[in-house]
Amino acid sequence: MNSSVTEFILLGLTRDAGKQKAVFGVFLILYLATLSGNFLIVVTIKTSRTLGSPMYFFLFYLSFADACFSTTTAPRLIVDALAHKKTISYNECMTQVFAAHFFGCMEILVLILMAFDRYVAICKPLRYTTIMSRHVCSVLVILAWVGSCIHSSAQIFLALRLPFCGPNVIDHYFCDLQPLLKLACMDTCVTNLLVVSNSGAICTVSFIILLTSYVVILYSLRNHSAEGRRKALSTCTSHFIVVVLFFGPCIFIYTRPPTTFPIDKTVAVFYTIGTPLLNPLRNMEVKKAMKKLWRVEISSRS
After folding, report:
1. What kind of membrane protein is this, topologically (predicted)?
2. 24 touches 16 (CB < 8 A)
């Protein structure tokens, strides 16, 4: 590191004092809802005997990644909303870059695994149990962890090479490569190309893969019963909504030249806080299992 900057100043979502209080209240509620919703899914899937299929195996890791991904950005946003001095140390900033990209990439890869699981279940039903065995699912999740580690390591490598010579005000609510590139006292064209070829390519290619899988699944549903189509459409529609809300903002942020816009902060809210909040709300079977689990828990204590 060749830098004279030891800390950064995060401007947050807004500089208006009245709006900052609203930001504190609203995002505290959203963050607590995200944590509780994903925690309940993790506990329910871990303890329920009826949720042992690969879809819920992947949903377990998606909920874990969602909770961690939200935790990398939301607490700082909430605390800074009421803080007079909104500073973050250089080391904390670099840690946030690594964690955000690690759990963000993990979420992307698990969403792809869930789409693959739905494809096999709908298009290859007779071979489903063979293809999606517990061993195969475990290997796929391990590969997702490894892939996330490789991606985030590449991002932190780029971030650590950036020299900062004076300006340290980040017009954002968390540390990320795009706003950091704006502060670096060097030509960042090559670094930005590497960011686009890494984060941008992952977002774009993953989005295309997911869209293609949904098109194939919808096409294959023409041969299924009305009930089968209804259940499959219900699952795929909820997945598709989350995919659009996550990948739309990601592609907007990471696939462009090294420029930042005031709207970037608002756009980032969708994939850093919005998507982790929505994931726990999209599966009826998990909701039913939750109600059953907690009814049993309450009746056993009374």
Report:
1. Multi-pass membrane protein
2. no
Q: What is the pLDDT of residue 228?
A: 66
Element (H, E) at 216: helix 201-220
**Residue matched to tokens 């504190």:** 24
Which residues lie below 8 Å from residue 188, measured CB to CB, with a gap of 6+? 162, 181, 258
- Inter-residue long-range contacts of 281-289, CB under 8 Å, 24+ positions, other chains counted: 281/37, 282/238, 282/239, 282/241, 282/242, 283/59, 283/235, 283/238, 284/234, 285/51, 286/41, 286/44, 286/45, 286/51, 286/56, 286/59, 289/44, 289/45, 289/48, 289/50, 289/51
State whether residue 8 is helix, strand or coil: strand
pLDDT in tens, 217-245: 878 877 767 776 776 676 677 777 788 88
**Nearest alpha-carbon partner for 121 in 51, 217, 214:** 217
* CB-based contact 64:35 (threshold 8 Å): no
Which of 254, 243, 145 is CA-nearest to residue 201?
Answer: 254
Query: Residue 289: in which H helix or E strand, if any?
Result: helix 284-301
pLDDT number for residue 283: 59
- Residue 296 has a pLDDT of 61
Q: Which amino acid is at 84?
A: H
Q: DSSP E strands: which ranges in 146-297?
A: 169-170
> Are 282 and 246 spatial neighbours (Cβ–Cβ below 8 Å)?
no
d(CA 185, CA 165): 6
Q: Element (H or E) spanning 282, and its range? A: none
Contact, 174 vs 161, CB < 8 A?
Answer: no
| pTM score, whole prediction | 0.88
Q: In the chain, which stretches have pLDDT less than 50?
A: none
- Residue 17: predicted pLDDT: 80
